[in-house]
Amino acid sequence: MIPFELAEPSSLSEAISLLDRDDPAVRPIAGGTALMLMMKAGLFRPVRLVSLRRIEARYRRIEVESDGALRIGAMATLSGLERSGPVRDHAPVIARTLRRVANVRVRNVATVGGNLAHADPHLDLPPVWIALGAHALIVGAGAEREIPVEDFFQGYYETALRHDEVIAELVVPSQRGRRAAYLKCTTRSADDWPALGIAVSLALDDGLVSDARVALGAATATPLRLHAAEGVLDGARPDAATLARAGEAAVAEAEIVGDDRGSAPYKKHLLRVFLARAVTLAIEAA
Questions:
Q1: What's the domain range around 131?
Q2: Are 82 and 128 in contact (CB under 8 A)?
Q3: Contact at 8 Å (CB) between 232 and 210?
């Protein structure tokens, strides 16, 4: 690796002041599990890295708001998220998903904000955030903005973040009365990158699905919300025929991308199968 400057500010505002809106070679670093690999491979050559490890402790906290929403600091580690009592009580699908994300060494270091900002389309958590309706609180020089995670990804490894902004927190709205599940298909070990990952969140009223949210990862250039599949599920009884129609709607809507984990036709088949399984699992996860 070529030499670079490492700054270690003690506050978020100081960290933001050290970034440069016009220079992508100046970048914040949290856990660094992905960024360091990119640097070692020569894919990213920083001029300055701004470490977020010493900023205020509030950005590591995981708390429940008075309305039942989860507020998750961007510097919380994935293992902290996995073990969090508030997460298990208010959005247990997050904790269940994390059991099969990478390995414990990575989860002990990788952070919630860094994982989201990295924007690798194969990541497991983005579809879950989208299905749960999560929003990211983004902080820049003198300004804050909130953006739904489903709108955060702008392209392959591209996000809505400017170079002088960082993710401060994630907010997951109250999931009272809702059921959720995440499933992934891997072609190697259970904790490997998925060939396809799908998250589902829904409510059930007298046996009928309502307010379904379906999100797809690993099979498209960016994590994607599947509105057409949601439209098939909403107001319907989740029987085999409905699930089959939802699967076909999902395949027609999503632009599936093949890679070394599976061809596009293979992933389309996975989408049909795993969407039905995820809906069924969500319904069972009362």
A1: 59-172
A2: no
A3: no
